[in-house]
Specification:
Elements lengths: L4 H20 L15 H4 L3 H39 L3 H28 L3
Helix pairs in contact: 1-3, 3-4
Amino acid sequence: MSPDRADVAAHLKQIREIHAELVRSRGEYDFQAPALVSHADAYASDPTRLRRYATTAVNARIMQFLAVTFMKTYHFLDAYLYGIDRKNPFAALSAARSQLEVYAVTWETIEVVRKNSGG
């Protein structure tokens, strides 16, 4: 059973609203990016310092991942809507696939954080 035009239009309207919200919220991610190297080995002999490092570095990297994921989602939605508006199936399909890959990475990241939290 294929969706009717009203369902497709409503879904497209929802996608455009998400895209607009991402545009509005782009300036809200103001934080210092953490170093992209790990200092865990250097602090391994000092559990107190290692724990303090972990609470700041892990949280900062999660925020960085969140900001980058929102930016990717914005650009993929932009490409998807471009493809829809210009009737270019390649742009729409490529953007949709890329967003699915972002969802997969995000899901795996959440599972890793959940598995390792509290330790």
